[in-house]
Amino acid sequence: MSDHDLVPGPAEERSSGVPATPAPDSVSPTPAPPESPARARLTTEQQRLLTKLNEHGFRLIMMADALVLLAIAFGTQFAIHGWAWPTYPKPLYVVSFLLITALYLATFYFGGLYEREPRLGPPPALPRVTRHVLAATGLFAILEFGATSGAQQLGYFTERALPMPLTNLVVLFVLGAVAVAGNRKLANWLRLNREGPPRILLVGAPDEVNVARSHIGEEQNRARVVGAATSADDLVAKVAELLASEVVLLSSRWLDDVYPTVISTLEDRHVNVLLRVTGKETMFGLERVRQVGGMPFVLLRLHTLPRSRAHFKRFTDLIALLVSAPIVVPIVTFTALYVLLVAGRPVLYRQERVGAAGRRFDMIKFRTMYPDAEEDGRPQLATRDDPRIIPACRWLRSTRLDELPQIWNVVRGEMSLIGPRPERVEFAETYEQLIPGYESRHEIPPGITGLAQIHGRYHTDPEYKLGYDLQYVVNWSPVLDLEILARTVWVVLTRRV
Length: 497
Description:
Blueprint: H1 10-16, H2 37-40, H3 44-55, H4 60-81, H5 90-110, H6 125-153, H7 166-195, E1 199-203, H8 206-216, E2 224-229, H9 235-242, E3 246-249, H10 255-258, H11 261-268, E4 272-276, E5 290-292, E6 295-300, H12 307-343, E7 348-354, E8 360-366, H13 394-398, H14 406-411, E9 416-418, H15 425-434, E10 447-449, H16 451-455, H17 462-474, H18 478-494
Parallel strand pairs: 1-2, 1-3, 3-4, 9-10
Antiparallel strand pairs: 4-6, 5-6, 7-8
């Protein structure tokens, strides 16, 4: 559920272990407080409906954002022109205002503004909102230009196909950013009143704990320390005992003890884990540093790609496939005919791989090895001069053209254009036992190419590849995908494998 939900669903409260209002500062378990007035005003059916809507990505704050944006768009028009709207019919203005509002909401959603934001040290809302409002305004300008050009090509001589006076657009940009940021301030205030301040469990040496207590103690209305631990032993049990909503690691020396199992368990229970940033950590080039009681922290997450970003990634995949189809389809056809001529049937080779969330699927490739390449039934890693490879097909592997049939896996949603390469089931199970955090690469659908493929080789150590894969998951953006695609073309042309 989102930070910005004005009323939570019952499922979240049961699973998170965080009470709706804070318990006293004590090490003993505290009984759940009585139901809050906001919650009591909702019927059981309304609570179920809100929970179901939240599971599908709907947030109440979306309605609040839509209302303020529409109010600004229509209010500005009425303030300037009254009821006599010039040049264009009123229905066309209404369509334009509704369209730009929908475009704003889509930009906010794909930009992650409706994802659940930890309450401890939240970043300022206005700068984030302003960036997204600017992006949405630019997209509307491009859409208006395209629609107007298209209308003129069809013989409709109109100055604007989607009338949005410049004054209205500027007012919507300025007041819209302020109003949407204000909605988030209001939602956070309501959440603070409903659930109380974050309940913090400090993990560190006694002197570190004392310093942190003194800093956080200055902001009792924003956060409350409910306990401390001098080791990471039984950390999950302590969180449950103290009903903590946040765990703050005061030194990076605890990371080996909590990564990945403890962090993953706490994250699944909606308990946030933060790490205090010291001078040593700043050398890592950390971004998105938060401030709590004057101390810098970073949020630690294993599940790094929120649902809205995953949807945006899927959307960009489909757009890229549609745009590239006139080029890709002939290449796939030619390659299939070539494999049929030099290798015979079957042209395609299917192999079970591990996909998103650990689900298994059949990955498709052009066959480049002799039939029965694994006669003993045991999986074998390919080598640089693997004798199982058909000589006439070696160039397909070096240019990665044998991977092209996986476009069908992308269409089916089993893979993405860019992402960690899907691993064979047997190898994935072994790596998960040997490499801590290996399962985190399954956060997103696997890709035809990825960061590990443009920087590494076929034979790069799996743990090194994992570093690239997780770096990609954490820093994903459409711009990063474009960069990887461009560098993949260079890898293919130079046959660097």
